[in-house]
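__Record contents__

***
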Amino acid sequence: MTYLSRIEEILLLAIWKLKENAYGIAIRRQVEKDTGISWLSEAIYAPLSRLKDKGYVTSIKAQRSTEKGGRPRIYYQLSPSGLGKLASLQKVNQSLWEGVPDLKKAAENG
């Protein structure tokens, strides 16, 4: 099994959550919401490009811009192999965390 970087995994999840609304700014906002970390827009485009190169994500350019004079949005969606990869990552993460107690309490006390 090939592994993804953590940001690639987070981006796949964001695209899955956003469904048909997965475009650059919306993806960045979803990632910020999920991680609690502020991200520069540029920080998500290189991993998105890698995900496209790996065949996990496809992109579609919108017919027109939503802003006057703006560039058309590029929407991203999971490919069938991207959804399969996300499912296998979910299984691995569940397996990794199985049997681990709530570490928040341990961290607060230790």
